[in-house]
């Protein structure tokens, strides 16, 4: 009886291990593709840049990742690749900071006129931002975010109805971003299956 029980446990462990290996065999190449698309993104001259929000400090200052996105958006505007900039973010639940307003203030402090900035304080996630952009009917959009998030952001904008979409990402890498790469690699198929304009 004991041998049979042990045999059943070993058999279940083998099946579980095989399942994990199969999953990794599928997930790793997909993660590689998501990463490749992000780091090789080339912004195309467009009507608008959409800078996606992320966390700010308790004092209302952009954290490092957001500052990098803002610097990329600023670079695109100064190079004449975009005419307007939409800053889209949430009002954070813990500190009540308005990410989009903070982003707009950061850009205006660097001589971008308020008249070319669109503030979206209800971009609580990538999909909502995509819907908000699509309602504006821009002819073309460069989505500005971190490299691991480019592919899902581009897909969301196209799915929402924006026809010409390209991506721009800061040229920085941190080891912690591998977790976000995994998360976005899982989130994109979920978006494909669940999001409708």
Automatic annotation (TrEMBL):
Pfam families: DUF218. InterPro entries: Cell_Envelope_Assoc, DUF218, Rossmann-like_a/b/a_fold. Residues 48-165 form the DUF218 domain. GO terms for cellular component: plasma membrane. PANTHER family: DUF218 DOMAIN-CONTAINING PROTEIN (PTHR30336:SF20), INNER MEMBRANE PROTEIN, PROBABLE PERMEASE (PTHR30336). This is DUF218 domain-containing protein. It comes from Gluconobacter sphaericus NBRC 12467.
């Amino acid at each position: 009886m004991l041998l049979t029980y042990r045999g059943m446990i070993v058999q279940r462990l083998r099946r579980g291990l095989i399942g994990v290996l199969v999953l990794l065999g599928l997930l790793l190449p997909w993660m590689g593709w998501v990463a490749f698309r992000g780091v090789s993104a080339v912004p195309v001259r467009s009507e608008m840049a959409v800078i996606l929000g992320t966390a700010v400090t308790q004092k209302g200052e952009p954290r490092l990742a957001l500052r990098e996105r803002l610097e990329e958006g600023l670079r695109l505007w100064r190079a004449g690749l975009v005419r307007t900039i939409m800053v889209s973010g949430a009002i954070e639940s813990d500190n009540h900071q308005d990410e989009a307003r903070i982003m707009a203030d950061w850009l205006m402090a660097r001589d971008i006129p308020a008249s070319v900035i669109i503030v979206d304080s209800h971009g609580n996630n990538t999909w909502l931002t995509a819907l908000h952009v699509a309602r504006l009917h821009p002819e073309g959009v460069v989505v500005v975010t971190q490299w691991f998030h480019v592919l899902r952001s581009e897909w969301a904008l196209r799915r929402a109805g924006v026809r010409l979409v390209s991506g721009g990402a800061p040229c920085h890498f941190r080891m912690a971003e591998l977790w976000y790469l995994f998360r976005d690699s899982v989130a994109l198929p979920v978006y494909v299956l669940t999001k409708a304009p």
